[in-house]
Amino acid sequence: MINTRSNTHRAIVVLLLTFALSSSGAPAxxxxxxxxxxxxxxxxLLSRMSLHEKIGQLSQVGALDLKPDQRKELGDLLPEDxxxxxxxxxxxxxxxxxxxxxxxxxxxxxxxxxEESRMKIPLLFGFDVIHGxxxxxxxxxxxxxxxxxxxxxxxxxxxxxxxxxxxxxxxFGPMVDIARDARWGRIVxxxxxxxxxxxxxxxxxxxxxxxxxxxxxxxxxxxxxxxAGYGAAQGGRDYDGAYIPEEQLRNVYLPPFKAAIDAGVGxxxxxxxxxxxxxxxxxRFLLRDLLRRDxxxxxxxxxxxxxxxxxxxxxxxxxxxxxxxxxxxxxxxxDMASLTYLRNLESLVQSGKLSVTQIDxxxxxxxxxKIRMGLFEHPYADSSAAESILTDPEHLKLARVxxxxxxxxxRNEDSFLPLKKALASVAVxxxxxxxxxxxxGSWGVEKAAKAVSVLEGVRAKLPNARVESAxxxxxxxxxxxxxxxxxxxxxxxxxxxxxxxxxxxxxVDAARRADTVVLVLGELANMSGEAAxxxxxxxxxxxxxLLEAVVATGKPVVLVLLNGRPLNISWATEHVPAILEAWFPxxxxxxxxxxxxxxxxxxxxxxxxxWPRTVGQVPIYYAHNLTHQPENDKNFTSRYLDVPTSPLxxxxxxxxxxxxxxxxxxxxxxxxAPGGSLQVSIDVENAGGRSGNEVVQLYLHQRAGxxxxxxxxxxxxxxxxxxxxxxxxxxxxxxxxxxxxxxxESKAWVEExxxxxxxxGGDSTASLHASFRVASE
Length: 777
Ligand code: BGC
Prior knowledge:
Largest sheet: 6 strands, mixed
Bound molecules: beta-D-glucopyranose
Number of strands: 26
Strand order of the largest sheet: 11-16-15-14-12-13
Helix content: 25-40%
Number of helices: 25
Strand content: 15-25%
Oligomer: single chain
Radius of gyration: 27 Å
């Protein structure tokens, strides 16, 4: 029977709600608000806000629950603050809260904002959800190795869903800093060395975090970072300055930011570094000319943590007030954690140094983002749904697939891999062999799900085999990690010499007893990431010693690497038949590694970085320029006298358990008009015995022009699935976007009428070649 009474009642409620929302200009969650509606609401809010409340919106307050000894260790890294967070919120002194994942606390603070503060403006809760929240996905460098934007989008959608389940509504990603120096610890957080691949990953991450538009239920707003040039830190030392000429900035470092902005990212984070002597968080050229004017960004800029205050540390600002002034006028809307805006902007306005209009201009995009997110109408997470979201088994399935797809098979002599499941005994050796913590990587979150170690993964795969394990080596940082101090993690004490020897002997014995050895070497999670730069790329600790001792047993050895950067594996490349780069693969890492080792999954990852032979080669990247004495000259084969110029493994490289053959490279024409396009096609065939994906890569080179151009640049890629014996034609379009670059000669984007080379294949050394010309007639 139809219940007319309740239907009528429902219709009235719907009508009333529609009216209430339309009269306030508020969109339903997930539906875009028009620009006019948003502007009207922002204007109405600004007209009622006091100066103090406006400055509050420009302030992000840190909520780290530090113990006195941690605070002492951190020194003056964080500001002293005698006001409780609740009071800051109550007084309208916080636009955002940072670093809390406690859902009850988040909810309580949002209640204070919505019910006890005068303006009732909802808070943004920001947290670094970089590669997962409860379910940890592979680190971003690994995700880039998948060359699979859909996978990246899906993984970040899961991360967003889990984070938003506890009330987090803002993440500090994607991190898109181009990094060409593996010493820099933060290379792990981005997509590697290449702007084209980096842009594809940036776009995918933004779509994953934010959904179709801001306010999509179960998503969060993103923050593309660190604007800009941070990856070029001198000597790979974290936080060091960089000198980047404008052409490199525009052609190499900015494209991934542009991609994120074009994909609609809501916020941008300014970087710590001095760029060309001007700190990025006080850099008008970066934040106004490039970001707003040229890249068209309309959201808001948040500084990196403490970066506003640190303008003084840089020797740039005279005092905190000057720091606040210079950062705000340069274009930083929100001060992350340093309270410098909160403590100084008001007096700057009172003294007439800043106008209320300047403050309003800074507040406006923050309110806009909050309105577009639908936060005023939906400030709270649905706590009843949280547990089922956080424990959704589908998330683990995706994490396993992601980990499989990100691993790069570097070496596989005589089809050493996959291993047979009939093995009677395996030794899983190495300091990282049974680690659940390290396998999660650099932004593993405290409340992450329990991860599967390599040992557990191998045991699960071989229930009937004898699987032994031994550490064999010991790892720790020499200098403490900032992040460890913040999270209260005590540095490991190095093992005394005799115990270390004992561990090594145990490992060698275990290897001798086994049919096959899975040797798991690499880095601790805190050896990559922020404040985790290294001067050496050697295997840390006594791992090289362990490697050589295990190989000396004569047992078949496969080397599995868990790490956030390329390491020196030149010796291993000559002495170990199979090497699998597994990066930090996350929660399902151990299972995924076992899937690859024993052939339940086919490795398909491709390197997002050129892999150096030795630390002395860095910075190293494939898209360098050709200069005097080409290195492929018959007399001058290397630019060094002691090592080849080439990397150990090239960008884009990775093996599979099957083989792919490329043929029939065709162009739709030999010339194209400026602004026009041509088609490039190639046949790719699975010439091996099992199904798999190949990443078909297209590289271009401009032979002459107003400036020298890189020897090759990636301008297209497609993951292509093929059954054994199957052949497909893969097509690319090459046009203005692929052919243009920013020329320092004309200080503009140009497409030059010149001759171009094109190569298509499975990595950056692809040999199938054709050429064409851009010509006006
Ligand atoms: C890092 C950022 C991060 C921020 C907030 C900073 O130290 O450089 O990448 O988003 O902290 O945790």
